[in-house]
Amino acid sequence: MVYGLDIGGTKIEIAVFTEQFQLLERWRVPTPTDDYPQFLQTISAQIDKADQLLGKRAPVGIALPGVVAPQGLVISSNVACLNQRTVAADLVARLQRPVALGNDCRLFVLSEAMLGAGRGYNKVFGVILGTGAGGGLCVDGELYQGPQQLAGEFGHQSVAGRVLAKYQLPLYDCGCGLKGCAETYISGTGLARLYSHFSQQSLTTYDWITAFRGGDMTAKHTFECYMDALGACLASQVLAYDPDVIVIGGGLSDLEEIHQALPAAIARHLFAGASVPPLKTAEFGAASGERGAAILGLRAADGRRESLI
Ligand SMILES: [Zn+2]
């Protein structure tokens, strides 16, 4: 058995899997976001509950928003109390068992590459399009990792200059401190921001979809611009990694219109002779974080070194 936990900004999902990743139990609790001792206490209580359900102890894998920097320090997390904390080491001390910790986007890629839409491909590039944009590359079942755990943070590469020029777009401020990051255009929030730019009206992403499907011309123009920005961004990843497949997940991956338009949108930003790899929709949706965390938890229990990603 293994426990996979997915820490979100508002809730923590706890899932119990067999070693073949069959789901046995799942529940959720609110995330303590501002009180680190309370956060640790909440995790401990859920692991105790899982141990009691199973009648035994199992290793733990955790997916969280933020980067797990060298020495296990969590940085840049939107769960504020985790920043600058050695979350994995603190939980190992409390739980007295292997605890693996990883970035939720990277664990999405690992779960899709091993168990989901990327199964059977060697080089899987995974993309999450939700409130932010990020992902990673998995090669032969292993996440590609560098010394700073930054590989996959493509949302903070610059949006393509030719897209800015074509649609006369401003450079938006990004939460990371830079301006003009791709994420501020290609995330769900970015899509709503682009609609506001063209229409001078504020709409949620959900309302934008209704307007788009109802034939609203500004919403259609927004979609063209959005697809151009997304196509350029993913073409850059094709040029960097030449993946065998791209798996798309996150809230926007449910939009059929994006899947239909994406191959041509990427092709427009590749030079002649370069082709677009197969594009697939993620199989596990919102459950990919806990599955990826469980894979990592089992690997940590086996003594493999990538217990922090
Ligand atoms: Zn940024």
What distinguishing features does this structure have?
single chain, 309 residues, alpha/beta, Nucleotidyltransferase, domain 5, 2 domains, 5-stranded mixed sheet, 10 helices, binds zinc ion
Describe the structure.
The chain has 309 residues and is α/β, with parallel strands linked by helices. It folds into 2 domains: 2-107 and 286-301, 2-Layer Sandwich (Nucleotidyltransferase, domain 5); 119-282, Nucleotidyltransferase, domain 5 (2-Layer Sandwich). Helices cover 40% and strands 19% of the residues. It is built from 10 helices and 12 strands. The protein has helices spanning 36-54, 87-95, 104-115, 161-167, 183-186, 188-199, 205-213, 217-241, 256-267, 288-301, and strands at 2-7, 11-17, 23-30, 60-64, 67-68, 74-75, 99-103, 123-129, 133-139, 142-143, 245-249, 279-281. It has a 5-stranded mixed β-sheet. A 5-stranded mixed β-sheet has the order 10-9-8-11-12, with helices on both faces. A two-stranded antiparallel sheet has the order 5-6. Helix 6 packs across helix 8 (217-241), helix 7 (205-213) crosses helix 8 and helix 8 crosses helix 9 (256-267). The longest helix is centred in the C-terminal third of the chain and has 25 residues, at 217-241. The chain is globular, with a radius of gyration of 20 Å. The two termini are 21 Å apart. The model has no long low-confidence stretch (mean pLDDT 93). Bound molecules: zinc ion. The site of zinc ion has 6 residues, from loops.
